[in-house]
Structures are given as C-alpha cells and as structure tokens.
Design brief:
- The protein has helices at 39-49, 79-91, 112-121, 126-129, 161-165, 186-191, 197-203, 221-225, 245-249, and strands at residues 2-4, 61-65, 95-100, 133-135, 144-148, 156-160, 168-171, 176-178, 182-184, 231-234, 237-240.
- The chain is an alpha/beta fold.
- The chain folds into two domains: 2-203, no CATH class; 208-260, Alpha-Beta Plaits.
- It has a five-stranded mixed beta sheet with strand order 1-7-2-3-4.
Length: 260
C-alpha cells in the first residue's frame, strides 16, 4: 500500500476514481523455480510490479510504516523483507525511514525510548535496515498534527507528525484477526497506527467498559490485572467508576474483566 502527496500522477496504475475501483492484488508463491529466486527477492519484484517506484519522487522523505512487534512477539514482518522495501525506495529516489506511533496501551511500545529499544531487539537497526527508525509521534505520543477530514465519524483527527510531514508513505503489514475489526491489516495499520495517543483515544471513545452484574462472579481477578487500580469490588461485584473509564479503555482486551 503506497501513498504520495502528488497522488502518484506519473503512475500508470493511478486513477482519480481509485475509491470506486477494485484494488489490484499480487501474490508471490513460496515455491522458487530457480536457485536465484527467494522470498526476499520476490518483495522487490512485487514492489516493481505494483508500480510503487512511480509513486516516489526524487528526495522524498518516505515513511515506511511497520509494526516492530511487542517484546516476545515473533509475528512481525522480518527485517530481511523490510530491507528489500527500503532498498527499492532508495532505488526510486526516495529517502526512507522506518516508523510507527506509540501505543495507547501499556507495553514495550508506549513511549519512544521503549519503542526504539524494542525495534532494536527485533533487528530493526540502521546497520541492518539501511534506514533509521523514527517514532512518528514523539517521546510520549503527543507530537501530532490536527488534520481536517470531514468524514462520517470525525471532522478532525490527530495524526502523528512524521506521518503528516512525510512526502510519501508505504505500509508494510502482516494480517491478523481482530476482536473489533474482524481483520487487522494495512488499513488498520495506517488508520489506528498513525494516530497519536489522543488520536487513538478518539477512535476508542465509544468502547466504554461496563460490568455485567449477572456474568460477574466477584472473583476479583480483574482488580489484580488492572494496571491502574481502576476496578473495585462493590457489593460482591466488580465496579468501574466514571472517572476510571479512561484507564480501562487503554487496557488490552485480554486483560478486560469477565463480563466486559
């Protein structure tokens, strides 16, 4: 998935009515027909076949949006493949950097220091990648720019500044199941991934956690797991006060109390 401020005008595949067209999808087989073929090489071929080189102008600051993975996670896209994208962007004349925004939930990517260290741990270092890592929304997720969109749910959104200021943007995503969206892929990786902490909170604002008193058995496990002490036990049932809603929204779903 690629985006350029010039809307890829010199790309033969570009059409101003792109939103009404079916996207072209390319697949690369695992099977190699000759010794010179491999999966990493196929990334380069896919880049060229899709015409992404025509979407990048000379000296573009090109953001390559990736997911560096939480510590202990192994399902992020290998740096070996991402390096091929970096090389292809450079060949097209761009000046690439790897980027992602900080998470809203508490983990190893919730601030730029931990985020950088996690990226390094998983192999995303300049010596390997040929490009630097830039955390898109700054040290603590507050480096954002308000953008007017005038869409169904929001008139304005707050996006990470590195996303807004980049000349061109490429999304490199892995697909996975998602409890709310069904499937999380390139669109979610861009839409949610490039929101600042305020932007992510805005998108999660309708997910107000409540306790179902019928389902709650009063075991107290949710109290133990809540990182901010936002849950109390009242009359034998878990209770979340109105002032604690913000912290609950930031909790990963696997930590939500039973009945949420």
């Amino acid at each position: 998935m690629n985006y350029n401020r010039k809307h890829c005008n010199k790309n033969k595949y570009y059409n101003p009515d792109y939103h009404t067209m079916t996207s072209k999808v390319y697949f690369a087989p695992f099977k190699a027909k000759k010794n010179s073929e491999n999966l990493a090489g196929m990334v380069t071929r896919l880049f060229e076949k899709a015409g992404f080189d025509n979407c990048i102008s000379e000296n573009d600051l090109t953001a390559i949006k990736v997911h560096f993975g939480e510590t202990g996670n192994t399902t992020f896209i290998s740096p070996v493949y991402v390096r091929k994208v970096v090389d292809s962007v450079k060949k097209a004349g761009g000046n690439p950097f790897l980027t992602d925004a900080n998470t809203l939930y508490f983990g190893t990517r919730s601030n730029a220091v931990d985020h950088h260290n996690t990226a390094i741990l998983h192999g995303f270092v300049p010596a390997v990648m040929g490009a630097p890592v830039v955390i898109a929304d700054g040290l603590i997720g507050k480096d954002g720019i308000e953008v007017e969109v005038n869409l169904k749910h929001f008139d304005k959104v707050t996006l990470a500044s590195a996303c807004v200021n980049a000349n061109s943007l490429m999304i490199v995503s892995h697909f996975k199941g998602h409890m709310v969206g069904g499937i999380g892929g390139a669109i979610k990786n861009l839409g949610m991934g490039f929101g600042t902490r305020a932007g992510k909170q805005q998108m999660h604002s309708d997910l107000n956690p409540v306790v179902d008193p019928v389902m709650c058995i009063g075991c107290g496990k949710c109290i133990k797991w809540c990182p901010k002490g936002a849950i109390t036990l009242t009359d034998g049932k878990a209770y979340i006060g109105p002032g604690n809603m913000l912290w609950m929204r930031r909790m990963p779903y696997y930590m939500r109390p039973k009945g949420h």
